[in-house]
Design brief:
41% helix, 244 residues, Rossmann fold
Length: 244
């Protein structure tokens, strides 16, 4: 029997990236809730990729039905692995890393295209990484109000080296539809690299002017793309039912 998906009963699960926590999704959350969607926000410890995948899977498990899994930045790697859960029907990448089998975020950073901006990551201390606070705003959040960008810099969540180096084993995008929002003014992940990863994954690509923190500065555009992904999988399932 073909599963019926009501777009308003899909749970949208939001996965944050490195150096930040789930509170940055507030604008996207509010926009999606206004449109009637169910939304859950993951709070990953960012200690290791395996830990974050496990935490994300626990959130997916609490969803009553189908899930659209959304990842920003490093959260894209988490979503790529956690998205193999059968409840996940689609993936949405927001200025995100999209590793293939055997790849880590570290490898994708090292293989950035020539001339790509270098993220101002400080040397690791006690197994954790931070961005240079003096360069945080320019690199991560250039289009976020300066007072807010400064707060983000001062409240960084240490990012575990094991999260950076964790390797994806089974990329969910190989078996599930995906969407990608490319941030054209990103200084953390080169737009060229974003486009390359999106094309490799076969993602439906949308380009929006914005910094790496586009999920904050352009929450409307992010929520809109997520809504399109939800609607697309609902239409697909309806067509399967109509032709069954």
């Amino acid at each position: 029997m073909v599963e019926m998906i009501n777009s308003r009963r899909v749970t949208i699960v939001l996965v944050h990236g490195g150096f930040v926590d789930g509170s940055g999704w507030e604008g996207v959350y509010l926009a999606l809730r206004k449109d009637g969607y169910h939304v859950s926000i993951v709070q990953n410890p960012t200690l290791s990729l395996a830990d974050d995948v496990a935490v994300t899977r626990r959130v997916i498990a609490t969803a009553p039905g189908a899930v659209v899994l959304v990842g920003h930045s490093y959260g894209g790697a988490v979503a790529t692995e956690a998205g193999n859960d059968p409840k996940v029907k689609a993936l949405v990448y927001i200025a995100a890393f999209v590793p293939d089998q055997g790849e880590s975020v570290e490898a994708l950073i090292k293989n950035a295209p020539p001339g790509a901006p270098v993220p101002p990551i400080l040397p690791p201390r006690d197994g954790f990484l931070l961005l240079d606070p003096q360069k945080f705003a320019a690199a991560f959040a250039a289009d976020v109000p300066r007072h807010k960008a400064n707060f983000m810099a001062a409240s960084q969540v240490p990012w575990g080296v094991a999260a950076l180096t964790g390797v994806v084993t089974t990329p969910a995008w190989r078996s599930k539809p995906s969407w990608y929002l490319l941030a054209s003014e990103d200084r953390m992940i080169s737009p060229v690299a974003q486009r390359k990863m999106a094309r490799r994954a076969g993602s439906t690509l949308q380009e929006v002017a914005g910094s790496h923190a586009i999920y904050i500065s352009r929450a409307d555009a992010v929520a809109s793309l997520i809504g399109k992904a939800v609607a697309a999988i609902a239409r697909e399932k309806k067509q399967e039912i109509d032709t069954a």
